[in-house]
Specification:
This protein has a two-stranded antiparallel ribbon with strand order 1-4. Strands 2-3 form a two-stranded antiparallel ribbon. It has a single domain, classed as Alpha-Beta Plaits (2-Layer Sandwich), CATH 3.30.70.20. It is built from three helices and four strands. The chain is α+β, with helices and mostly antiparallel strands. It starts with a strand and ends in a 13-residue tail after the last helix. A hairpin with a 4-residue loop joins strand 2 and strand 3.
Length: 110
């Protein structure tokens, strides 16, 4: 079992979650965070820390977010040099993006 970062993180990218992760399984992209499913120990500490409710347990992932399990795995592997373990400031416009639908197309890669 793993936790998964979903669509609402795109362009919000709060990093409150990374500081509580005991195994440092978060990886950072330009406008999104992912959890490496092979490193996550299913401790659930990150989920309540996300201020935009973008983290889900794999078995509670909403149907319209199922693709994010693969996105997290693929980008965690691809962004392996971008492990993040300390909180950073969220983007200045993060609040404007919270809850906006259709952000999947905005996901950026390094």
């Amino acid at each position: 079992m793993t936790f998964v970062v979903g669509e609402n993180c795109i362009n919000c990218k709060h990093t409150d979650c990374v500081e509580v992760c005991p195994v440092d399984c978060f990886y950072e992209g330009p406008n999104f965070l992912v959890i490496h499913p092979d490193e996550c120990i299913d401790c659930a500490l990150c989920e309540p820390e996300c201020p935009v409710n973008a983290i889900f347990s794999e078995d509670e992932l909403p149907e319209d977010q199922k693709e994010f399990l693969k996105i997290n795995k693929d980008y965690a592997d691809k962004w392996s040099g971008h492990n993040i373990t300390e909180m950073k400031d969220a983007p200045a416009d993060a609040e404007e993006w919270d809850g906006k639908p259709g952000k999947r197309a905005l996901l950026k890669d390094w």
